Amino acid sequence: MADSFSLRGPSSLLARTTLILAVGALLIVVIATFALYLFVISPITEQSADDEAALLVLSAQTWVELPPEARPYFELEMAESHDLIISEAHQALPEVDSYSQYFELLKIELSTRIGEQVVLLEGDDLLWVDVPMGGFALQIGFSSERREIQPLYVAMVIVGLGAGIVFFTSLFIVRRIARPLVKVARQAESFRGATQMEPLPETGPRELVSLARNFNTMASEIGLLLTNRTTLLAGISHDLRTPLTRMRLALALLPENVDPQLISRFERNLESMDELISDALRFARGTGEVPQEIELLPFVQEILATFERDITADLRVPQDFRIKIAPSAFRRVLINLIANGFQHGGNVTVIATADQIKVIDDGPGIPEEFREQVFQPFFRLDSSRSATTGGSGLGLAIVQQLCQAHQWHVSIENGAHGGAEVTLQFACAT
Q1: Does the reported pTM lie above 0.90?
Q2: CA 265, CA 322: separation in Å to the nearest integer?
């Protein structure tokens, strides 16, 4: 799962959109931070260091040129206005261990203006620099708390704020786009050709309106097509009963000297035709059936009682449990599953709970590669059938069609003791 994620990326629309926007925003932040540092921060830092170096040197020159009695007033003015301390007394102070970019530039500018190499000295709360000027060895102190603009911090702030903006922006955009798409996906997943399907709302952006309109048109056309097919199937099956009855009557009126084996073959063929017609009619009636509320336990018991052969029943359904379900379709599905179990195995076990029914046989089972094909009309697993096994080949196909029509789910697994285990999952109780 992890390898699949790493190769194909996140699967949700929100995650993909956020990732794309985040990568784009990150590139913008990197470029903007680099440009900001190169064209704004660095020039401002250099200019600020040059201005402060000029102020220090100018303050020293002014102090030298002033008469001695005016110098204390000048020192006081510079301390109050510019946080500069001008002192003629020399202090033995240690050199600053490491320089930030700003103070490194300040040191270079001072050295250039004074004409000799200077170093910055570290006092209690101030930084000091020796400024030789007009025969005086002045020491000027200035604040060490000058904030330097840090490109890394700037980038971190921009990335942090940008990430939040990208996430909430993508969340807003994707939710507006994904909500209609989720509705379409749910409708497509639940759509089984029912003509009474609630159409999707045709609102929102033009592309989503077009998607909803095309889906509604497609669903309507498919529903109408399936309805017409079912009606045609029911009509043909019903009309075939009349010639079938005439053939039975004609067969009964044949003279006694007709070969009995020939009559027997005709009767078997007529029985096969009758079974096919009955299956078609049951299917046609079951697909359009309206769900009703029934008591599940007695209904299942009634169905099991219709079989002459013994069925092992494990009914774990409360006595008064009620469920809303299409009764005729449910009856046909369960009968077909049990009949299929008897057809492929000697014994059948039925396990019923409030939301599903399992039909288990002790036959040879169904290979995994054929578990989808067995629901196709007229598909037979010849290797799993005896020579005498018949059937129309529509039993499981009708089960699948009815389950799809009523939004049930049917699946086949291997039984715990061999054979096939067919699970019918239906809707929850009302």
Answers
A1: no
A2: 47
